[in-house]
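Box 3.1. Reading complex inputs
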Amino acid sequence: MGEIDFVTALGRLLHDVRLREAFRADRAHTVEALNVRTTDCQAIVRLAPDEVEFQARILLKKRLDAIQRFIPITCERLGEGIWTTFVDYSNKISSLSDVTEDACCFAEYVAEAVPAARCSSEVNRLRFAKGRSRFCMRFTRDAGRSMLGGRALQAFVRWSDGGWKEWRVGIRSYAARR
Amino acid sequence: MIGVGYRHELAGWIDSHPEGVDCLEITAEHFYGAPMERLDELRRSFRLFVHGLGLSLGTPGPLDRERLKNFARVVNAAQPDWISEHVAFTRTAEVDLGHLNPLRPTRETAKVVAAHAREIADVCGKRLLLENITSHIRIDGELSETGFLNEICSQADCGILLDVTNLYINSRNHGFDPLCWLRELDRSRIGQLHIVGYSEEGGRVVDNHAAPIQTELLDLAKAVLEYAPVKAVILERDANFPGPTVMQSEIEKLRRLFGRN
């Protein structure tokens, strides 16, 4: 394994909770195992584990804040369990450069891990957003309180420049009377 | 000029052409893959600046081509007065961390950041300002933070976007005098300010961009305005979006401050 620079070493620490635990337990040994280049070695050894941990937590929080804007209903349904669920998710899936993709992966993770918090209209929207299709229609029972009983048709259209828009039409069903 | 960071959640208020808002700062990443018509509309009513979050100037090696292309596309559509990014890294060769992280303040790092800064300014054809970040980690290096910023700006011939809130937060968390820090900075390079209220969490001060501007931040901003030739102050907000009345009162606080200088 080749030598790594300061940015790579700090990136690994911020990204990997187990590495941070090892760093807290024995900084010199962990840095030696990372094979940090000589010029950056002491700067990494002198980092305070508490500060690295706090920075890692801030990164995770900012990531969740960014995702939350895409899936407000899912997050509201997760309630106080949102942080634990998100930490579990982040241990499986590292930060994705595309926030839409990250939000979609988290929404899909929630659908399996906490089915009661799943919001189908948000999953539909994110799947369209990260895909390439030009047009898509989806039925949902989860369109939010403003729609009739939450039931709606979602129509998505993507423009040629990559932008897209969603329309929602509430659906009311009538039973035939005899 | 006084302005706000454009956010989708504030679009309604911004479209009402609020009194006292001269300019908008567009976050480039919010427009990646999006239609550019909105930028055309905004450009007709406001002076624009384009701000980047993810070009990761501190990562050794070449800039991410795709991100730079997307950034330049937004700049081209917005036709801003200037552009800005952070003195930070958001990704390494192995992992994308998603948000801003501190760099080791050395001459070698300054060279990397300055080369990237020059490339961004050249590709976009605009003056680049670099922003100081909040860091919860103290890192040893051969330069002080201000020496590091001055060195980068001198090498890349770029300006400084001074985030007053980040300066205040670092001074509280790491126990230094923000005014001494300010006086070490090359005043001629400070062209723009960012400001937003801070929050407290786990015994530390954090920049979650969710609170109204506190008095101590206004005092620090006043000191910066007296010290440097600032052209624009941008109010940021990314969470707990308030209604128009509160936004307007935040703008008014800044107008009073800026008007005095």
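In summary: Residues 49-68 of chain A form the longest helix (20 residues).
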